[in-house]
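To: structure desk
From: M.T.
Subject: fold request, one chain
Message: Could you run this one when you get a chance? Sequence is below, nothing fancy, just the single chain.
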Amino acid sequence: MTGSEFGGGKLRYTVQRLSVREEAVVFLWAGYNAVCFFLFWAVQLVIVLVLCRLYVTQMDTAYVSGQTIFLAFYRSNFLHSLLPLEEISRYVRNGILILTLGVCASCFSFRQRRGERGSAVVVLAVIVAVSFPNAMGSFGSDIFLSLVALCIAAGAVAGIWKERGGENGS
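Reply: Done. Structure tokens follow.
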């Protein structure tokens, strides 16, 4: 909710007083949001790896090898999507999802400051939550999800530019 006025603040007034255009602020917030989503992914990954390591230390040694944790990441669709190991398309998909979620969250606060509803981040978050855990080898699904996310983010950014054009024309 960075940049929104849900807490009762008057952020729109503050942003309008800056010497930079509000679109530049939106893109700076998009970068900030993307970094936050990246850190969220990294913390999830560290927590899962620590829990897997803890589980391995509690298991009977007859069932443990040096590959036990990585085999768990190959067997579980969610874990494999979180850390795809050698599946490059999944890394690309995750990177695109991080960037597009950051952009859509920033566009949401832009819309909210204008009294409008920004639904792009909600739609994208639902799509990501539903389709994140894919099976291994889902190259087509990864590409499709990446393209959908890019289209949603492009639509959110286009709405900002379209509004900017309307303000210049008035």
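Reply (cont.): The chain has a mean pLDDT of 83. Let me know if you need anything else for the meeting.
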